[in-house]
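Repro:
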Amino acid sequence: MKLYADRLPTAVRQLITDLIVVIWVYLWIRAAMWVYDMVQKLGVPGQKLESAGGGIADNLTDAGSKVGRVPLVGDQLVKPFNGAADAARSLADAGRQQQEVVDQMALIMALVAVAVPLALVLFLWLPLRLRWVLRAGTAAAVRDAPAGRDLLALRALASAPLGDLTRLGPDIAQSWRNGDPEAVDALAELELRKLGLSASGRRR
């Protein structure tokens, strides 16, 4: 498997592109985390409401239990305290629900913020990168074998621009059909050069 080209200009371009993609992904992940933290701050009022409601409910319940010990009228006096405690618990529940909604909203917005950039990387850049890795790995594996160089030459004849082929000579196709080693080597090198590979595998 080859991750980078043999020819330095192509290898440098690939390395810079890879670094840009890594930085791009990192920055968007950081942005998603920032969005999550910012939305989470909307849950602070809910936290305060839950804390205050829970504290008031506990205090009212405690006061009601003490009032309930008053002889004869204790049962009547405790009812308002219990009612107020229930109302305070409802406030605490509302605050808890508000926090749950904020948590869900923060997660959804963070995922949306990072989903599109990651989709661009996964569905646009990565397939192209993997395609080059597979093609370059195969070409590098066969370039030193006579039959492999013939395959590379055939690939060049089938896919190289017409202008590049004519620069190799007007009879390059006929020379290849006749098995001319120089024509085969020239076509194979053309295909390797298109992939950023050198004929010998050394960087240059």
